[in-house]
Amino acid sequence: MSVPSRLRRLSLIAIPATVVAAVQSSTASAVAQGPYQQTNLVANRVGTDMPTAQHIDPHLVNPWGISAGPATPFWVSDNGTGVTTLYANGTPVPLVVTIPPPHSTPGATSTPTGTVFNGTSDFQVAKGQPARFLFATEDGTISGWNPNVDLHNAILEVDNSRHGTATGAVYKGLAIGSVGSSNFLYAANFRAGVVERYDKSFHPAGRFTDRAVPAGFAPFDVQNLGGMLWVTFAMQNAQKHDDVAGPGNGFVDVFDTSGNLLRRFASHGALNSPWGLAMAPSSGFGPFSGDLLVGNFGDGIINAFDPETATLEGQLGDANGNSIVIDGLWGLRFGNGGAGGPTNTLFFTAGINHEADGLYGSLVSSEG
Question: Please, what is the Cα angle at 320 between 314 and 324, to 5 degrees?
């Protein structure tokens, strides 16, 4: 997918954080625009309390992150079953990869969240075997998968679980990026309130956050969009393990890959435990073409922002003019033009029914 030119200019723009915060804090609601058509592609089961989907995959419980290579199927992290499942143009692929638990709890079910594709020769899980896909978990681990090492299991590389104690890391999101010729992983540690950086050998290489974000908010997700790190913040609960949803509970920042804060993009307003992030293609996605899409886990709404000015443009709406609401909304990703699907189709994951079930679906503009 081509990156809109206005996104590439973001690193050259320095809008004062106070100005952006003031604008977004005063914009708590937005008008639904569209129409967009939702298709439920895969669910984990059939039931009267479940949406009707085209396919059933019992592994798809509380799916979070979505990753893909340039032409691969989509890889989806299933938080409720400890695996990643694959979907080609919305159809399940037979391969299921298990994400390992921490060393201290062998045999337990892990809790994967963020995931990324790695097209470099770094992040090796065996000599000469780089991880092609990598996964973070709420258990505080990072693992990598290479088909030549183990087709059905990822390999544990980072374990900061601290035996499951209250000081262990809780990774909610994962990104990959580079500084010069060096490649890094970035993990959103919700409990510690920082984004952690790891080098090509999985060694710690620093951490960062936005110190101006109020106490009690922490990095919830991190995504590399257009070569910059977009970080969402959500309110922590007392255990600093889960978010506290509510209107205005959220921030979005932009950092460079060295961890320097470039700008505060959005504050409060329409945000409600924001997690999913995606940059819409410059055309083919209706009124929100070229916009930054921010999905709220808290209320299931997808907000669209001008990526240059941070203006809230509206919310994805249905044919009746209502905002589309997706229960338990997590990941957002546009198709890769290959097995992942068309580049103007927005795919989503959701932990429906209070994260007890799962849904994988798509959204397309009815007007193109």
Answer: 50
Q: Give the domain CATH number at 134.
A: 2.120.10.30
124-126 and 129-130 beta bridge pairing:
antiparallel
Q: Give the number of other Cβ atoms within 10 Å of residue 241's Cβ.
A: 14
Per-residue tokens: 159:
């374990």
- For residue 128, what are the domain limits? 5-365
Distance of CA 356 to the CA centre of its chain: 19
Spatial contact of 254 and 12, defined as CB atoms under 8 Å apart? no
Domain total for the chain? 1
The pTM score is 0.93
Cα 185 to chain centroid distance, Å, stands at 14
Q: What is the mean pLDDT of each run of 10 residues along the chain (368 residues)?
A: 44 41 48 97 99 99 99 99 98 98 97 99 99 99 99 99 95 99 99 99 99 98 99 99 99 99 99 99 98 99 99 98 99 98 99 99 93
φ/ψ of residue 334, rounded to 5:
-80, 150
Residues 6+ apart with CB under 8 A from 161: 102, 103, 104, 105, 139, 140, 141, 168, 169
How far apart, in whole angstroms, are the C-alpha atoms of residue 106 and residue 100?
8
